[in-house]
Write a sequence for this structure.
């Protein structure tokens, strides 16, 4: 059997570089393959390659590792190319959020919707399309898996502007089988920690659909019985205990979920992001509101997490942290789980983002949605979900239109389309504010943007 080559563009990723190594070391399907690391920062690349070599030696693993600051050197022979890079991501997310906050636009995450999503795409998408061009030339049979936010914008761009490259997108928020198991627990189907029998698996039906970071629980049944009332009670119990503490993406999520559930009749699934996709907690009428305005993304705290990651890596390389600490403290990654199943013909279903292809019956076939898919080396095939109810469909369509406009604005460096995307965005509600945000972000992020914006 041929052994796969997995190339990670963005080896220094907080969420993927180390996890991909752990998974490839432990997977019977992947461990005799090759892990290719690419990063434009030579120091970070060198540390990640040395970390891989250290862990390979520790386990006496047959896994091979390659590394280069020039992706073209590593792409040759690749079977999978995972995109997981950012151009000073924490710094620029902080700028996006602080400038937008001046105009009343509050983003708790700042990299998928609103000005933060639009400008992160403006920073990363041109490079994503250049990677796709290199893949088409050097490893045309490889699958490109986009792991970079805004996932949907970048996934649409690959689908529209690199149609000859095989691609789909993903996010770890619905990592299977954990997402399914967690829902079983909330639904009262199994106690937390109890094994799931084949009979339970057979009788449990879970349907989730929507744009990445904006998905909804369409239905949840066990032996034909609706289990959403059980989920509702769990959320109500959690909401009663919530306080104004912790990371911006975690604050009051259960309370926001109940409010949206009452309004639209469905349970939102990914509240850390979904609450940022709606305009209801943007600081208007806060004094009379049951829930506060969103807490803005804290770039300083996120940078501390990045710094801690590199301290950990350096600890392994210096010998102050033992390899078994790495083995114990890291675990599976969504992308390499999917790759393992595709390559090994394991026939496991996963939530990934790709063309709808009729899965949601009242959305276009090419609507780029996060859906449970059967996936093999031919690509993802979404499982049928049903229809979005009124209201949900309208919001999903608005976000999709915003993302489609964002793609075309960035590909063409078209200021009029950028302005239209910003004004269609669900959390930007004043034209003059949109214009001011665009002008300030273009100037503040000039070094990270396509020079054509300033021609």
């Amino acid at each position: 059997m041929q052994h796969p080559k997995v190339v990670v563009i963005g080896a220094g990723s907080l969420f993927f570089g180390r996890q991909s190594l752990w998974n490839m070391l432990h997977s019977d399907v992947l461990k005799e393959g090759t892990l290719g690391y690419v990063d434009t920062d030579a120091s970070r690349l060198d540390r990640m390659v040395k970390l891989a070599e250290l862990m390979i030696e520790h386990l006496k693993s047959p896994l091979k590792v390659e590394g280069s600051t020039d992706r073209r050197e590593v792409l040759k022979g690749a079977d999978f190319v995972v995109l997981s890079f950012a151009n000073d991501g924490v710094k620029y997310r902080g700028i996006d959020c602080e400038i937008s906050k001046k105009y009343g636009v509050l983003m708790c995450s700042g990299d998928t919707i609103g000005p933060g999503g639009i400008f992160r795409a403006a920073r990363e998408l041109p490079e994503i399309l250049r990677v796709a061009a290199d893949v088409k030339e050097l490893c045309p049979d490889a699958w490109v898996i986009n792991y970079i936010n805004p996932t949907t914008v970048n996934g649409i761009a690959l689908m529209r502007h690199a149609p000859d490259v095989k691609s789909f997108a993903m996010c770890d928020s619905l990592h299977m089988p954990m997402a399914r198991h967690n829902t079983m627990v909330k639904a009262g189907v199994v106690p937390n920690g109890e094994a799931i029998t084949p009979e339970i698996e057979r009788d449990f039906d879970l349907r989730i659909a929507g744009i990445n970071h904006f998905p909804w629980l369409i239905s949840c049944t066990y032996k034909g019985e609706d289990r959403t009332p059980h989920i509702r009670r769990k959320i109500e119990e959690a909401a009663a205990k919530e306080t104004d503490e912790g990371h911006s993406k975690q604050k009051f999520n259960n309370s926001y979920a109940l409010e949206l559930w009452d309004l639209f009749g469905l349970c939102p699934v990914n509240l850390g992001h979904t609450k940022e996709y709606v305009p209801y907690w943007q600081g208007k009428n806060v004094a009379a509101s049951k829930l506060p305005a969103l807490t803005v993304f804290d770039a300083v705290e996120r940078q501390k997490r990045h710094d801690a990651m590199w301290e950990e890596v350096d600890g392994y390389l210096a010998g102050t942290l033992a390899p078994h600490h790495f083995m114990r403290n890291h675990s599976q990654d969504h992308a390499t789980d999917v790759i393992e199943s595709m390559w090994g013909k394991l026939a496991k279903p996963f939530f990934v983002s790709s063309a709808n292809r009729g899965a949601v019956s009242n959305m276009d076939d090419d609507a780029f949605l996060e859906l449970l898919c059967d996936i093999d080396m031919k690509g993802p095939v979404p499982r049928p979900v049903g229809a979005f109810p009124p209201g949900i469909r309208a919001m999903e369509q608005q976000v999709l239109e915003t993302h489609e406009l964002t793609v075309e604005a960035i590909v063409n460096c078209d200021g009029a389309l950028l302005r239209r995307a910003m004004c269609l965005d669900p959390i930007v509600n004043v034209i003059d504010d949109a214009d001011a945000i665009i002008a300030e972000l273009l100037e503040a992020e000039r070094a990270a943007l396509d020079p054509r914006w300033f021609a």
